[in-house]
Amino acid sequence: MVRSVVLLTAACLLAGGCASFPDEPAPTSWSAQPQLTPQAGPKPELPGEFRPAPGEQNKGQPPQSVPPPQGCKDFNPGVIATCLSTVTGVAPIGADAQGGVAAYATERGGRLLKVTKDVDPVVIAQIETDTSSDGGLTGLTLSATFAEDQLAYVYVTTATDNRVLRIAPGDTPKPILTGIPKGPTGNRGVLASDRKGSLLVATGDAGNPALAADPNSLAGKVLRIDGSGKPAQGNPTAGSAVVSSGLRLPGGLCVSADGQKTWVTDWTASADVVYRVTPGKLGEVAWNWPDKPGVMGCASYSDNLTVATSKTPGLQTLSMNAAGAFTGKPELIMQENGYGRIGPVEMLNDSASLVGTVNKAGGQPVSSDDRVAIIVREGGGGGGKD
To answer: pTM, whole model, 2 decimals?
Structure first.
């Protein structure tokens, strides 16, 4: 049976969901922020969820009646943008004219795009970036008050450093945090909202593990800043943007809808890993993948952590309890969903996420790759039958 999920408001898109979560104590060192203004506007509707027949292994797999893409035309109803370069970031911005989801997407080569279903992408900004190593334009998040200020933030590698830029439509991108070390490797960085008004920035180690351990370096860190690039109030050390240290090459950064759980994926020398970030420390490895599937974006749902893998098709899901402890081994899902390899993930609500594909970066691209799509998960806490 196919079901469709309607978002409660466009604010649910930008805040990451309207699901109810068990009460948890707030982090001891991060200060609470004033209530943010919700985004007004139409209610985007998510596509129907694909349900396999009983006993099938690949949850979320589209029915076989969906024909393959023809050129840039993709018949999968979850797809909202096609024929892009490698997608490195996605962020919902509200509803399109037909009531579907409109989004921003970034390409590693330097473009920030507005994407809507059946409409050619609109270039919001073209940024000069260095993609000669593992850098480029690799991270995207939105202002907590996007409905009012329309601000987006991106993480880019330049000829001299890695940095965070603030972008307003029709304006030149403005650097707000510069001087993040650049090296022959370890340049990728990712962004997220902390759900309380500040930005989280995960940075690579620039190929030098010593920098990741150096409290005075911005490399190999999870940083927390305000919209102007200054250290956010309530950080573990006053006047410092550093929340935790020890990253090598982060792939994804995600926060639960209530702001209580923060996760970062990383590529270490021995395994791909995911950490739960706590103020003042990176924390112990919450899970590791010795086979190195290329962990990237993640979504922190109420009952699981879903992690994208850029080297293998599908998603990894880790069931967890209300406290955020994993209760079993990862389950590989959607490996035959037609999307292939997935990079960025942004949770829409407790039932669905926005994703971007990375099939042109070593996968098996179809004619409509790379794409931005909506994945509606089976049994999500925020959904219901029509």
So the answer is: 0.85
